[in-house]
Amino acid sequence: YASLNEMGALYSMFDQMRTEIMYLSMQRIQQEKAQKELITNISHEIKTPITTIKAYIDSILEGVCSDTETMLEYVEIMRTHTDKMARLVEDLLLQTLQDLGQITVEPREQYSREVLHKILKPIGHYVRTNELTYIGPQEIPNVLIYIDAIRIEQVISNLVSNALKHTPPSGSIRIDVQLEAGMLKVIIADTGSGIRPQDMPFVFERYFRGNPGSAPQRGTGLGLSICKTIIEAHGGTISFTSKHGEGTTFYFTLPLC
Ligand code: ADP
After folding, report:
1. Alpha helices in the chain (DSSP H)
2. Which residues contact ligand 1 via a Cβ below 6 A?
3. pTM of the model
4. pLDDT in tens, 216-248
5. Contact of 179 with 141, CB cutoff 8 Å
6. Residue in 162, 174, 231 to alter for ligand 1 test, most ligand atoms within 8 A of Cβ
7. Ligand 1 centre and the CA of 129: distance in Å?
8. Whose CA is nearest to atom 16 of ligand 1?
9. Residues 81-99, mean pLDDT to the nearest whole number
10. CB 126 within 8 A of CB 162
11. pLDDT mean over 51-66
12. Cα 174 from chain centroid?
């Protein structure tokens, strides 16, 4: 009996090991698949703006731009596409740092009105060049916050870029800043496609990309996971509400000093 019992125990130990090995190799396969998909998506994401920029440069060199107005329009389009590439490279860098557990925030005390005004200033223009209506904050509460302005700018820029991606022309993007429960709350709302209920639990997960029909571009699935890391490193929270077909509102909070 003793040896039968021992064999039974040994068998269940092996069985457990086998399950663990299978689980680990499945995880490994999934990670490798995600990495490969990431490279495909990055290549695609970079190829599109490069092709566009090159087409505009070619037109300029061929003398298609006869007047300053058209030239400025072309340069503006090239700038939008360059910004897109810059954001993508920044996301990739941040993702590597996140993997290494090294996303650093270097906060300092500053007044919310000044810093947010500076961050939001170019956004209205950016939204309007995408043929959408921009509704900025009425008044930004002026409180002392302890933040890394560069990182918070990355968060806002990611959220606005998502809103742009998922909102068809003639829609609108609204940004608001409020004081709520002793925190500063930044709200970015769009009138776009919304997020499907089945995608909602996963949007902050790395590499997750939701409904493919909702945006013309593919994306890398990194943006929101990076936003969450940055906001949580500041001691804040990030969340959203969304109604499929009606729009999405992302909001994050920052503690006051
Ligand atoms: P990416 O935009 O590269 O796909 P993100 O991490 O920024 O990655 O977003 C993850 C997913 O969340 C997106 O693929 C999309 O399905 C959904 N999503 C994010 N923001 C919005 C939004 N404003 N409207 C609709 N869906 C959104």
Report:
1. 2-61, 68-99, 112-129, 149-165, 223-233
2. 162-163, 166, 190, 192-195, 199, 203, 208-211, 214, 219-225, 248
3. 0.78
4. 666 788 899 999 999 999 999 999 999 989 999
5. yes
6. 162
7. 21
8. 210
9. 83
10. no
11. 90
12. 17
